[in-house]
Design goal:
The protein is 3% helix and 56% strand. It is mainly beta. It has a 17-stranded mixed β-sheet that branches. The radius of gyration is 24 Å and the shape is globular.
C-alpha cells in the first residue's frame, strides 16, 4: 500500500524561525513519480469534487488512490495560532480509498473539536492545543475501527473498538489529566508536560468471538513523580476468560525499594510473588 506513504510535510511544531507562515493541510493531486522514486504534486491538477486531496498510488505497490475531503459536509476547518504560527486543522473530514475500477476499498470519517488553552506550567505562561473530542471511524471491508477521545480540563477518556470479521475487540483508557500539545514542552513534567502529572490511570480491554470471550483490566493509582520520573504506583489487574477469573494481580512499584516491584499474582490454582515470577522467567545464573 505504498500510496499511503506520501512525502508530504506533516503538521508538527515548526522551528522558531518558521513560526510565522501558516501550515495548511495538503491539497491538490499528488502522484507517484517512477523516475524520481517519490510522490510529487501534479501542477495545475485538481482533485475530483468534493475532495481536496487526491493521492494516486504507486502502481508497483497498489493500483489504487486515496481521496480526502478536509471540510466534509461543509464544516470548515479550524485555524489555530500557536506561538505565532497558524495551523489549519480539520474539524470534519472524510477519506476514501478506491481501486482502479472505482470500487471502494476503505473509508474513514474524522470529527474533532479543538481548543486553545493559556496556562502556566513550569513557571512559564504559554498556550497549548487540545481536543475536547475526537472521533475516527475506519471501514475496510468486513473490518472496522472506531476511536473516540474526550477530554476535560482534568481528565482524558479514550475508547477504541475494532471488528475483524466475527471478532470484536475494544480498549478503554482513562487518566486524570488532559492530553495537550504544548507550544513549549516542559522538561520538568512527564512526557514534556503533554499530560501533566497523572495520578490515576485505568485500562480496560476485551475481545469476543463466536465461541469465546476474554477481558482484562489494569488500574494504576497513587502514582507519584519526581519531576519527569515515575517513583511509585499501586497496581491492580485481572484477566477473565469466558466469564471465569484466570489471573489477578495486586502489587506496588517503588523506585526506592529493592526490588522495586512487590506484590503477588493469583492464578486459578496457585499464587506467586513478583519475585518468584521473575526468577521463573529469568533463572539466576549458578556459579
Amino acid at each position: 500500500m505504498g500510496f499511503l506513504e506520501p512525502s508530504l510535510t506533516p503538521l508538527e511544531p515548526l522551528p522558531a524561525p518558521l513560526l510565522a507562515p501558516t501550515a495548511w493541510l495538503p491539497r491538490g493531486v499528488v502522484e507517484w513519480s517512477a523516475s524520481l522514486g517519490r510522490y510529487e504534486p501534479v501542477a495545475g491538477a485538481d482533485p475530483p469534487a468534493p475532495y481536496d486531496l487526491q493521492l494516486l498510488g504507486n502502481p508497483v505497490d497498489a493500483d489504487a488512490e486515496l481521496r480526502v475531503d478536509w471540510d466534509s459536509g461543509g464544516v470548515p476547518t479550524d485555524l489555530v495560532t500557536l506561538e505565532g504560527g497558524t495551523y489549519e486543522l480539520p474539524s470534519a473530514a472524510s477519506a476514501v480509498v478506491l481501486a482502479s475500477d472505482d470500487r471502494e476499498i476503505a473509508s474513514a470519517t474524522f470529527l474533532a473539536d479543538w481548543e486553545m488553552v493559556v496556562e502556566d506550567r513550569c513557571g512559564v505562561t504559554g498556550m497549548s492545543l487540545t481536543a475536547r473530542s475526537i472521533g475516527l471511524d475506519v471501514t475496510l471491508g468486513s473490518h472496522g475501527l472506531g476511536l473516540v477521545l474526550e477530554t476535560t480540563g482534568s481528565s482524558t477518556d479514550l475508547a477504541i473498538d475494532g471488528t475483524i470479521g466475527t471478532i470484536e475487540a475494544s480498549v478503554g483508557v482513562t487518566l486524570d489529566e488532559q492530553v495537550r500539545i504544548l507550544s513549549a514542552p516542559c522538561s520538568e513534567l512527564p512526557l514534556g508536560g503533554m499530560i501533566g502529572t497523572p495520578t490515576d490511570i485505568g485500562v480496560d480491554a476485551s475481545i469476543a468471538s463466536s465461541r469465546h470471550t476474554a477481558s482484562a483490566t489494569f488500574d494504576a493509582d497513587a502514582i507519584t513523580w519526581a519531576g519527569p520520573d515515575l517513583t511509585a504506583l499501586d497496581m491492580l489487574g485481572r484477566l477473565t476468560i469466558d466469564g471465569s477469573p484466570v489471573v489477578s494481580m495486586d502489587g506496588r512499584y517503588d523506585a526506592s525499594a529493592d526490588p522495586p516491584f512487590d506484590g503477588s499474582v493469583y492464578f486459578d490454582d496457585r499464587t506467586m510473588t513478583f519475585e518468584e515470577i521473575i526468577d521463573a522467567l529469568f533463572p539466576p545464573e549458578t556459579p
